[in-house]
Specification:
about 140 residues; GT10-like_C_sf
């Protein structure tokens, strides 16, 4: 049954919550003194008051600005350099047939089919375009011999 335009979808079936991700899954910890966490305030007005307070208090602003973003001496450049290296190493250390992970979907089949047709039509155009030149070369060779 197709719902009509005036049908309201019950909100209990729609998940509008922000997922709660366990802190154990992160390799780093963000310094709570380096930013304003909106979840620490019960109302939007309290959050706005805190932003105004920090905006008007130069020392509080400078203290927050100069706090390190990550705790535990975490270096994001080294972290992501290691992540990228491990990712590429896992690909390049495999046999090429195992590393090749393209699916066999309809879109890929269609792409390959169209690419093959383009290649075939390009070869045919080239053959037609070079026909007069090739015929003259054959005539010259025949006359020389």
């Amino acid at each position: 049954m197709k719902p009509s335009d005036d049908t309201i979808i019950p909100t209990q079936h729609i998940d509008t919550t922000i997922p709660n991700i366990s802190h154990n899954l992160f390799d780093y910890t963000i310094n709570p003194k380096a930013f304003i966490n909106a979840h620490n305030f019960s109302t939007l007005d309290e959050l706005v008051d805190e932003v105004k307070r920090i905006d008007n208090d130069h020392k509080a602003y400078q203290d927050m600005l100069h706090e390190p973003l990550f705790l535990d001496n975490f270096d994001p450049c080294k972290y992501y350099e290691k992540q990228i290296f491990n990712f590429l190493d896992s690909i390049l250390s495999q046999d090429p047939n195992e590393a090749f992970r393209r699916g066999n979907s309809a879109m890929l089949y269609l792409y390959n089919y169209r690419a093959q047709k383009r290649d075939n039509s390009a070869k045919l155009r080239k053959k037609i375009a070079h026909f007069p030149r090739n015929m003259l070369r054959k005539i010259k060779e025949h006359l020389k011999s």
